[in-house]
Amino acid sequence: MIKAILIFNNHGKPRLSKFYEHYNEDTEQQIIRETFHLVSKRDENVCNFLEGGMLIGGSDYKLIYRHYATLYFVFCVDSSESELGILDLIQVFVETLDKCFENVCELDLIFHVDKVHNILAEMVMGGMVLETNMNEIITQVDAQNKMEKSEVSLTLFDIYS
Amino acid sequence: MSPSVPLQEMIRAIRSARTQCEERGVIQRECAAIRAQFRQADNGGRSHNLAKLLYVHMLGYPAHFGQMECVRMIASPRYSEKRVGYLGAMMLLDEKQDASLLITNSIKNDLSHSNQYVQSLALCTLACMGSAEMCRDLAPEIDRLLRASNSYIKKKAALCAVHIVRKVHDLGELFAPAARSLLAEKNHGVLHGAVVLIIELCERNPETLERFRKVLPDLVQIMKGLVLSGYSPEHDVAGISDPFLQVRILRLLRILGHNNEGASDAMNDLLAQVATNTDSTKTVGNAVLYETVLTVLDIKSESGLRVLAVNILGRFLLNNDRNIRYIAMTSLQKIVGTDHNAVQRHRGTIVDCLKDQDASVKRRALELSLALVSASNVRSMMKELLLFLSSCPAELKAHAASGIFNAAERYAPSQRWHIDTILHVLTTAGGDVRDETVPNLIQLITNASELHCYTVHKLYRALLTDISQVSVSNQSEIRFVTEDDVLDALETVLQSHMSGPLTACLSLHHFTTASRIRSIVSIYGSCIDVELQQRAVEYNALFKKYDHMRYATAR
């Protein structure tokens, strides 16, 4: 099970925080800070697995992360997930973001955090991996965005008719 | 106009704040505006306001006043509003809040909505934060969706069922038949969800596990299809067909085969096929291979297959990718007890990993190396370990030192070798040696009476080069070294602040001659450390009263 998915930048500013278990607001922020602290200390040439911090879980939990340019992508998982599998999943996530935003960069995530949530919702659900096929994910995300857009234009139509 | 524009304007405003204080100000103003908007009956920009609130929540500002708005949005007929409402519910609500009960009805209605994307929103939210009551209430609906809907919904319903079973254990029985029939699906997303559900059911209930052993042939068939089939562009990831699904099925096979001969036999051939056919030059291949290894080692596999698995781990140790080396180490650590001989074959590679740059790999290599020391390899292993000790990172020194002591104690080929080793450790990492090991050392030296002279020599030389925990234990057998030299050295030890009170104590214990002693000892009569003080006073008393019996009592 995936307990949380966090994206933050090199200074620890959160760009996406998705928790699959409920914590109150203060604890969530503490977890983000602690995770940033643990992950940012790591050298570039060490492995991508860290034993989890105190707050988010204890000995059964690991932090699996990848560092892309200015962003850290961190998945906090328990032993039921394959570590290498999660690393591959992070790769799929980033590639999907890249496809959806066309050469995604940090600014895209900042200004379109709701879209990132929508994309993530097609990949991970309730802390479990849902879909790993990039094309399938993008197809569904596009269809849903189309639906939203068509609703907006309907509203405008209502106003003017 | 894209629905997100007001959100982006707010984000821009927040980012332009130059200080934390300014940012707080901007956010407080925005929240006040949002609050006011929530109180208004109906306005066009409802979804924007909630989206803004969720952004602010991510940054760590309070957003609880948005909970009721989430409930209202979820009940809206418009998809864009439902979407933000459900997202808000997942971020702001949990079963402890009263507001979460209010969305149960909306979820129930949305589960049978004509639009699959609305259904999917409801499924997602239920799987994230559904309480036990909600789960009980909606379980039959989920079961219906598992059987009769399109693949998109089926795959989501499967994971939703997993959540339900976690919340309400007895509902596992309800989903077992549907889970079984899902294995006949072609869609990989659905298959994946089905396998996750079956894993959950089997882990919860041993009877269910027993029943699911019967579907082993189906699982083997699916795996064979993935591993041996030709190129399938839809599922291909770097030459491997749906590695995520393969890994998931291997996990289920592990659960089914654990402690069960029949099931383990049935999957033996398949596992051998996966192990030999999977391309290990790409990382995705390694994920599958690794999962195969873990499965082989956890079931009742035949010895040939086990050796194959350990060899794969051995190959992983030579991989350029640090992650692969790390997980290989972790796995070898777990099996070094049960498959000791197989792991011993890779001892050379493991010892090489002591020199790895990655601290986590080093740590694993140390633990593994200590576990692999045996009577036959103790001399060569100890050489490597002592070499490691001299250059290892500070946080590992204490662990390494005590590990070496233990190994030396168990397998020392001779006492002289043993003492040499211990002294070597003390000189290299004396400061990191745990206090409780020193008395053991003293005991050992005391017992090796024929080596006292040799020991004293070495200790004295060691004292001269490095003053730390090197305490002198048996100075009364001095023969070739003058007593004054020893006293000089010991005095330096006492005065050095690096050595702990323990060392000072032990040093005090063994002064045998010279009146210099009295002066030094009396200084310690007023030492802060109680034990030192006590010893000092005791000795002073001894010196005064029983001068002629000094030699006898000094031991």
TrEMBL record, chain A:
GO biological process: one example: intracellular protein transport
Domain AP complex mu/sigma subunit: 1-147
Predominant cellular place of this UniProt entry's protein: membrane
Key words of the record: Cytoplasmic vesicle, Golgi apparatus, Membrane, Protein transport, Transport
Listed SUPFAM superfamilies: SNARE-like
Role this protein plays: Part of the AP-3 complex, an adaptor-related complex which is not clathrin-associated. The complex is associated with the Golgi region as well as more peripheral structures. It facilitates the budding of vesicles from the Golgi membrane and may be directly involved in trafficking to lysosomes. In concert with the BLOC-1 complex, AP-3 is required to target cargos into vesicles assembled at cell bodies for delivery into neurites and nerve terminals.
Protein name, UniProt field: AP complex subunit sigma
Source organism of the structure: Sander lucioperca
Organism taxonomic ancestry: Eukaryota, Metazoa, Chordata, Craniata, Vertebrata
Encoding gene, per UniProt annotation: ap3s1
UniProtKB/TrEMBL annotation, chain B:
Pfam families named among the record's database cross-references: Adaptin_N
Domain annotation Clathrin/coatomer adaptor adaptin-like N-terminal: ranges: 23-546
InterPro entries for the chain: Adaptor_Complx_Large_Subunit, ARM-like, ARM-type_fold, Clathrin/coatomer_adapt-like_N
GO biological process: intracellular protein transport; vesicle-mediated transport
Membrane topology field: Peripheral membrane protein
Subcellular location(s) of the protein: Cytoplasmic vesicle membrane; Endomembrane system; Golgi apparatus
Claim: Transport is one of the keywords in the record: yes
Keywords of this entry: Cytoplasmic vesicle, Golgi apparatus, Membrane, Protein transport, Transport
GO cellular component: cytoplasmic vesicle membrane; Golgi apparatus; membrane coat
PANTHER family: ADAPTIN, ALPHA/GAMMA/EPSILON (PTHR22780)
Family: Belongs to the adaptor complexes large subunit family.
Protein name stated in the entry: Adaptor related protein complex 1 subunit gamma 2
Natural source organism: Sander lucioperca (Pike-perch)
